[in-house]
Amino acid sequence: MLVGRQRCEVWLLRLAMFVGLLSAVVTVIYLTPVPDLQFASCDRPCHELDWPMICRFRLVLEQHQSMGGWCGDCPKNLTHCFRYGCVIAEGLTRRILTANKQLPGPAIQVCENDILVVDVVNRLPGQGVTIHWRGQKQSESPYMDGVPMLTQCPISSYTTFQYKFRAAQAGTHLWHSHTGNEFLDGIFGPLIVRKADRVEEQRTLYDVDDRNHILVLNEWGSGSAGDFPILVNGVFHKDKLMPKLTVTPGLRYRIRVVHAGGGNSCPFFVSVQNHEMLVIALDGKSIKPVNARTVQINQGERFDFVLSAYAEPADHLIQVRTNCTKMEGLAAVSYNLTEPSRAQPQLQISPLESQITMDLMSTLTSKECTKESVMCLNEISSIHDIPEPLNKPKMDVTLYLPFDYIEASTDHLGRAGLVPRLGNATFMFPSSPILSQPDEIDVDEFICNEHHTPERCSATAPVCECTHIVEIPLKSSVEIILINKDKYSSNDHVFHLHGHSFRAVGIGHDVKDVDIESIKQLDRQGKLMERNLVTAVEKDTITVPKDGAVALRFVATSPGYWLLHDQSASHWASGLDILFKVGETSDLPPVPEHFPKCGSWVGPQFFLI
Ligand SMILES: *[C@@H]1O[C@H](CO)[C@@H](O)[C@H](O)[C@H]1NC(C)=O
Ligand SMILES: *[C@@H]1O[C@H](CO)[C@@H](O)[C@H](O)[C@H]1NC(C)=O
Ligand SMILES: *[C@@H]1O[C@H](CO)[C@@H](O)[C@H](O)[C@H]1NC(C)=O
Ligand SMILES: *[C@@H]1O[C@H](CO)[C@@H](O)[C@H](O)[C@H]1NC(C)=O
Ligand SMILES: [Cu+2]
């Protein structure tokens, strides 16, 4: 009996211990924080010892309406104007395209080296899209670069594509649709990648890097020159409706500016009333600080400046102007008057701030550049000297790429019109993405390079529509000389390079009546342009002036297919593009599993018989 009872007690004890342990384990498991699967942002103070985070975002692209029902009584009742889903734009009711019902789309703000996982949900009826992450090199993930028919299939209507990549390039960047007019209609937003304070080169120059201090500028609508508005953070100012950056008197603020482009591709002049701007970065890369009253940038470019809130405590206008329209964009720097003014130790002017102030700092090149009070791209210095081997006189690969428009015919009827041409070819997209479905492209039909042109292009024809590919060995040093021979448009051309950032080492002029062989010879004699091989700035977007030429240098470190293109409003249609294949096919990372496919289909010839 006794023994049995004891045994029973032992078992009970064991059972109790087991249950106790189990509940302890369950409690611990329950309380252990599991990675958040919500679509949470990674917006936090960045620290150099932190683990990178996985940051999930969801961009739902859809048709939306500006000033529609979502805006309620806006602008009569101002609180309604700030409701979720209320897009003000120029204040008219009109059909637009948005990401998450916002204009600009949501700001993606992360720390350097975080992993971004962005679900792009395409709810645009009948429109394929891709999203490009401008400023991110994608050296580990060329499939995530977002160029339709080159790195991926367009995301077809009503499907979702998940972009996954490391935000490896810190700075002020931009995400945008890369497929055509969605870009004009509102599918873009800022992509801000911050460094930890301790590794941020310019950290001593400002006190506050506020997540709200972003200015996204864009042209709105396709109005003809002179009558289209410029939006600042999605708003064309009207009475009290104006974006405001709140500052505390006495502090210095880092402000990030993005030119998101538009239909007329006009460069913008940005200035702040009663303040100078200390420009500290271009295209996300640190530069030697420049004090300027006005900064001019072209579409796709970004700049960061420090605003010292030392002026009269009041509202001061931020003006965004261009020569193309009188409808300037406005925002305000608003001094917070309830906040007591901070001590101003900075007023003992530091050597940097005591330097002379430029009337204009510009990333463009014009006649103005010779003026003492104007600083243009070739005079701006990077904070880091050009590393080897890019500072050598000769590069492994040198490419002269003239571009122009000529009267020619590309259609089968022989009708002539203006056809763009870059390095002898008019770029045409292949029928399947060359990166993810290389074997499905009919090389003979599409591809052209210096050794091969499609059969349909005769040797004597002035233009050939083809997928122009230049092969560049991995790790080689490259110099590209873009030469603007366009005599039909009075505009500059703005080019953007994918996959790499480059040093803009030289800008030349007056190449209008010089043929390409003479240009090469002039360059060999050092007469085409002067090269800055020490401090030239690092960028990903460059303006090639009318009748001018620019030289860009980079080391081809990222294996992949990378587009260099004229970023006129409609990327899709331009034709002034060229594709660089960096590395051998074996150097490319493998195609991700179940990557979407697309291509032409022509049925069996006699299937009805
Ligand atoms: C504005 O709208 C809010 C919320 O709908 C309401 O509470 C408020 O009374 C309105 N203000 C005016 C002046 O109509
Ligand atoms: C553009 O505007 C600036 C300043 O507003 C002016 O100085 C310049 O002459 C204009 N350029 C052209 C080509 O109209
Ligand atoms: C202004 O400063 C006060 C006091 O610190 C703060 O409560 C308020 O939110 C600030 N206002 C704005 C618009 O930031
Ligand atoms: C363009 O064509 C000319 C003449 O056929 C040739 O000399 C030149 O090398 C070509 N340029 C390129 C970039 O293919
Ligand atoms: Cu692009």
UniProtKB/TrEMBL annotation:
GO biological process, one term: iron ion transport
Keyword Lipid metabolism: no
Name of the molecule in the record: Uncharacterized protein
Family: Belongs to the multicopper oxidase family.
UniProt-listed CDD domains: CuRO_1_tcLCC2_insect_like, CuRO_3_tcLLC2_insect_like
GO molecular function: copper ion binding; oxidoreductase activity
Protein source organism: Apolygus lucorum
Domain Plastocyanin-like: 89-196, 230-326, 449-583
Gene3D superfamilies recorded: Cupredoxins - blue copper proteins
One Pfam assignment: Cu-oxidase
Database matches in InterPro entries: Cu-oxidase-like_N, Cu-oxidase_2nd, Cu-oxidase_C, Cu-oxidase_fam, Cupredoxin
GO cellular component: plasma membrane
Lineage of producing organism: Eukaryota, Metazoa, Ecdysozoa, Arthropoda, Hexapoda
Coiled-coil portions: none
Keywords: Copper, Membrane, Metal-binding, Oxidoreductase, Transmembrane, Transmembrane helix
Domain of life: Eukaryota
Transmembrane annotation, as ranges: 12-32
